[in-house]
Specification:
alpha+beta; 12 helices; elongated
């Protein structure tokens, strides 16, 4: 992956000597001293190249380190670290004074780095867990991103990974963490690594040739990797698989967290579960059973509520049935029913026209948002009344849209204050159609 540096910065640092990578010699090193080879000031940033550094430059999916560089006359805050070939460039912003080409003291943000180390080693553990659960020993990485809180792995897999498979991936990953397996890292040639590990490495066309770094989780995973890692799986702590989704055809993405962030996730979940148990007056182990019983009660109450709603509609329909303006054998009823929701209006309108096939009904309310419902009895429809055609102007008045069929139409909008005007307009348009029928 190319660096994220300005091209003129890249050009200027290419001629500089190779930076000694202290982060490989000792990934637990937090502070160091180094001479400064170059400081390039550009806009608000400084780009600093040192003789040696423990700041890890972005690579292998792991983000570049952050921290501080302190000289005799100034301090810089490193906000990113990038590499141009073998030259490490510290992207920094001034905190105070000025850092010149002299000796500096560097310190990385250890909390950020250590969490990324745990996540990076965790990604190797999770990847091999995925392979075992899916039964695909030759599964390949399609991408990886290592951050300090949430990381992700993209894999070449064309099917959805089920919740039960995700749980098993998480279970296996944490089992490996608890087993305190050693993490061994060494350099060799790509050819030698291939001879030793074969297809287990999951090599692709972008895998570098020549000298490579091998990272092996004892009896579990092996990969070529340029990131920083912990020395044992126990240091990862916990792993929590958070989610999976289809990134594109043939590629699944799995998000996970590790270490303290994973513990916080479990702790927050347990706190929520405990609070829920208290609300349900049960133990945490009984929550699922109590929720199941409550769902049954809710379903029963919904059924009872539907019955009551039906009875209310029937009673109101009986009350309204004799109302309305006569147009020959037909009648038109237009009324606002503020206590009814859109669904209630629809049920009411349908009930009324079933009871009287010569009736045309226009109802409105604004329980959730302004809504207008129009329905025509079968005889009115047969004579040519079309509720969908006549609702258009009413929909415009309430600043919304609507449609439906000749028999029943619905419009919803945003302008509640215009509901009365919309009902009146709909009634006028339907009246005009009814009068036309009588001619």
């Amino acid at each position: 992956m190319g660096s994220l540096l300005p091209s003129n910065v890249e050009d200027e640092v290419l001629s500089l000597p190779r930076t000694t990578p202290l982060y490989y010699e000792n990934p637990y090193l937090r502070e160091f001293e180094s001479g400064v080879l170059r400081v390039i000031s550009l806009a608000e940033n400084c780009y600093v190249v040192l003789e040696q550094t423990c700041f890890f430059p972005e690579g292998g999916g792991q983000l570049g380190d952050v921290g501080l560089l302190i000289g005799s006359a100034g301090k810089l805050r490193v906000v990113d670290t990038q590499a141009v070939d073998d030259v490490v460039v510290h992207v920094a912003v001034p905190v105070s004074g000025e850092v010149k080409e002299e000796a500096v003291h560097g310190s990385i943000d250890w909390d950020v780095r250590y969490n990324r180390m745990r996540h990076h080693t965790g990604s190797h553990v999770v990847f091999s867990s995925i392979k075992k659960v899916l039964g695909l020993e030759e599964l390949m990485y399609m991408g990886v991103q290592i951050k300090e809180e949430v990381s992700r792995i993209d894999i070449s897999y064309g099917k959805p990974i089920s919740p039960s498979q995700l749980r098993e991936i998480e279970r296996l990953s944490n089992k490996v963490c608890l087993e305190n397996r050693r993490v061994k890292i060494w350099s060799t040639t790509r050819d030698e690594a291939e001879r030793t590990y074969g297809k287990r490495l999951g090599l692709t066309e972008v895998t570098p040739s020549g000298t490579v770094r091998v990272v092996e989780v004892e009896d579990w995973d092996v990969a070529l990797c340029c990131g920083t890692h912990v020395t044992s799986t126990a240091e990862i702590g916990l792993i929590k698989v958070l989610d999976r989704f289809r990134l594109q055809k043939g590629v699944e993405r799995i998000e996970f967290t590790a270490g303290e962030t994973a513990y916080k996730y479990y702790d927050d979940s347990m706190e929520t579960l405990t609070a829920l148990a208290q609300l349900l007056q049960s133990s945490t182990r009984e929550v699922m059973g109590r929720v199941g019983l409550l769902r049954e009660e809710v379903d029963h109450l919904k059924e009872e509520l539907e019955k009551v709603k039906g009875q209310l509609v029937e009673a109101k329909a009986t009350e309204l049935l004799g109302q309305g303006e006569a147009f020959g054998e037909f009648r038109l009823l237009a009324k606002e029913l503020p206590e009814f929701s859109a669904e209630g209006l629809k049920r009411m309108a349908s009930t009324l026209v079933k009871k009287d096939p010569y009736l045309v009904v226009i109802l409105g309310s604004a329980v959730e948002k302004p809504c207008v419902i129009g329905a025509a009895g079968q005889k009115a429809v047969e004579k040519g009344i079309n509720m969908a055609e006549t609702i258009k102007e009413a929909a415009r008045i309430i600043e919304g849209g609507g449609g439906g069929t000749a028999k029943i139409a619905q419009a919803g909008g945003r302008e509640t204050s215009q509901l009365g005007k919309a009902l009146h307009q709909y009634a006028e348009d339907v009246s005009r159609s009814l009068r036309t029928l009588l001619q």
